[in-house]
Amino acid sequence: MRLNYSFFLVFLFGSISALSQNSIDINALFDTEKHSIAITQNIRYQNKSNTPLDTIYLNDWSHSYSSKTTPLAERFADEFKATFLFAANEDRGFTVVTSIQESNQEVFYQRLKAHPDVLKVTLNTPLAPNEYYDLTLNYIVQIPNNKFTRYGVTGNGDYNLRFWYITPAVFDGQWHYYSNKDLEDLFVEPANISLKVTYPNNFTPISELDLIESKTINSLAYTEFKGENRTNTKLSLVKTNDYNTVETDFFTIQSNIDDEDLDPTKVAILSDKVAQFITTNLGDYPHKKVLLTWIDYKKDPIYGLNLLPDFIRPFEDTFQYELKLLKTTLKVYLENTLLINPREEQWLLDAIQIYYLRKYVEDFYPNQKILGKLADVWGVRAFHASDLKFNDQYPFLYMHMARTNIDQPIGMAKDSLLKFNKNISNKYKAAIGLNYLNDFVGDTIVDKTLSDFIKQTKLKRTTPEDFKSLIISKTDKDLNWFFDDYVTTSKKIDFKIKRIKKTEDSITITLKNLRNNTMPISLFTLENDSITSKQWINGFSGTKKVTIANKDVDQLALNYDYTIPEFNQRNNYKKLDGFFLTNKPLQFRLFKDIEDPNYNQVFFMPEFEYNFYDGLSPGLKLYNKTLLSKRFLYKISPKFGFKSKQVVGSASLIYNARPEGSDNYRTRYGLSGNYYNYAPNLTYTSFKPFIDYNFRNHKNLRDNKRKYLSFRYVNINREIDATGEFETTGEPKYSVFNAKFGVVDNNLKEHASVFTDLQLAKDFGKISATLEFRNLNTRNKQFNVRVFSGLFLYNNSYQDSDFFSFALDRPTDYLFDYNYLGRSEQTGLLSQQLIIADGGFKSKLTHPFANQWMTTVNTSATLWRYIMLYGDAGVIKNKNFSPEFVYDSGIRLNLVEDYFELYFPLYSNLGWEIGQPNYDEKIRFIVTLSPKTLLGLFTRRWY
């Protein structure tokens, strides 16, 4: 009887607890012809704060697709994603709210101006602390096309939905609401969810909720799902069910992630292995089923694996599938159990996910190489990259951003991060930071704390501060450096061994912290390349002396095991023998490689160039640039021109200074030189010392505005043409001081720039300014305008030639800046190459130069798709002549903006050009052959 009574009390309190839970009841009727959902929804939510509420906020992220000016649309434009901007209205989604009632009475609601996908609701009765509000909503969701975010209606009429119904915003003393920016980070509290879906019976519903009932009446099907303490309700309606279900010993995995064509038995074994690993480390999953979709993986892939074509299989199929399954399951597990603000506190979710991904590889694949089976291929195994383990990629990819000085704090809000930082660098820095912390604290305390933290806070509101308090309580070591420096700043880590003082029984080592932080460093002693001791040195500023025993040591090393993501590891070693030399052996490698701190690496690779006068010019490039950016770079590139029968080439020395915490994120000091032919059998030599300053808003790296300031002294020596065909009289050898300042603000919809240019030489001085504006509207119509104005301050060379004059259509390029294929050609195809500079005209007019001043305007506008109409107009002024008005117009084929374009002149000062003889010689073209320039079209989305 006592047992039954106890059971009754447990049942009673459990029932009361269930009744007190937040709840959301949804009835959704799908109209698959109109791609819409009619929803009736009941929301019951508790005010868990101590503050009475008369206003609440609701997340309506389906409405984030409603216009081309929402925060989601602006995000797409900033990252140069054109699909949404040009989408037809019927492809974009929205929400139409028909009514919101509280206790059967209408309430006032409105959309926030800055957040149109957030509803502000004024309650009829103020909500006291611990009381509940009950709302009934009726609304229609128009489902967007899935080409924007992968969620929505697919081309074959399937539906993959997330954040598709209205949810209450979180209030914990302050409201936590924000707009959808395709970051997968809606913040909601757990609720008991009841979902009733009605849809055509040729579809199959897929949900992570528990199936309660399913039936079919005529042509419609009805399915009911339920789930307790849920934060997420992904829903798919598919015509062909491609989901596989695996019942593991821990939880059920339902997934349509590509399984690499593995045998179902193998898939089941790997699924159970992954589920066991997660459960062992993170505790029991509180729900019966984990739903994994192909979208989950595509949005958070295993970078590297996802870029390789199927015919290149460097990894075993089992390994590839295992990691895809593990990473995606970890993400879903953490999203559904660890209730932190994913917009503001995402770093902890990322850290835990990647930390256990690394741990899994360490446990089960400790010898897996970063290049997989390719590491053993002849030729490839000569690269240092082939020596690296799979887990070495994490510090490497973080360091890619740190070395370029555009890394961001891992504790920064998710929507403030560059795409590369958000998707890759910050995730990896967070995980290796936990590994760094674990090694420093010792005794696997971090492992235990992470496990305890997740188990204790499961389905409870928590913050990274709670994790900090927990880990600090388990050790006497000072851990403030991790949370104050490593998490909240982008301070780099860099230590060096400054000096050594050795006695018979001890060694005194002076360490120097090259950065402004208090992060700890590990010190190793080695003998015959084997570790004999390791100790941690607490963080310090400036220098610190450490004394150790002079025993079993012939070499000292900092961070020998590379646990710390250190900025520069080349200054971490010191030998005790000889004269304490730290010079590393010279190593020559074919092609660029990953930096090996144990060697001074010199890379060489074949290189090919082409210009009309040297012809195809093969050669060898020797350089020290690795896959990670370095401060000092050199390059020597001799070549042989098959046409000129001469040795030509270039060389450069560059030092990159990257000040931290400054808008001046990079300053380049350098020297460059070139030796090529500028005309048939006529060479030129250029020598250019320079300083370049590059600026961007270091507090908001997502701001696309860039500023540039450069100074250089250009020295040119051209070989004199004895035949007189190419004018060199008066200017075969000259020097020009050149200062430039520019501002560029660029995104998908608008491009604006202004550049000023000052040139001072012995025989001339000139100043010019170029303004450019480009607008792309929602109908994919583009309008461009460019204004150029140039003035000679003095000009003593105009009587000899127009070599230094402003040019209307084809600058002489006396500074040798432009990539002309045939810079001295006056006739033929190469003379038709167009580079938009100076006047920017396309027609070759009678007076193409101005030796006093010039002002021009270049415009173009879209007619249809990539076909545009262009028009140029301007005034040129030459010495001893009156100002002359010039103009031209024609058709522009804008195939790839600034990279491949064709111009067909129609009408100009010359009359109707299209009817004149040899019209084919009037056609102009823009072509860019530089792979680095073309790569910028893709990298601009990530940086």
Question: Please, could you describe this protein's structure?
Answer:
With 943 residues, this protein is of the alpha+beta class. It has an 18-stranded mixed β-sheet that branches. An 8-stranded mixed β-sheet has the order 5-4-8-2-1-14-17-16, with no helix packed on it. Strands 6-7-3-11 form a 4-stranded antiparallel β-sheet, with no helix packed on it. Helix 3 crosses helix 5, helix 5 (317-337) packs antiparallel against helix 6 and helix 7 packs across helix 8. The longest helix has 23 residues, at 419-441. The radius of gyration is 33 Å and the shape is globular. The termini are far apart. The relative contact order is 0.05.
Q: In terms of quaternary structure, what is this?
A: single chain
Distance between the termini: 69 Å
Helix content: 10-25%
What is the overall number of helices?
A: 12
Radius of gyration: 33 Å
Give the low-pLDDT segments.
Answer: 1-20
Strand content: 35-45%
Q: Label the overall shape.
A: globular
The average pLDDT value, as a whole number, equals 91
Structural class: alpha+beta
Number of strands: 48
Largest pleated sheet:
18 strands, mixed
Which key phrases capture this entry?
alpha+beta; 48 strands; 943 residues; 12 helices
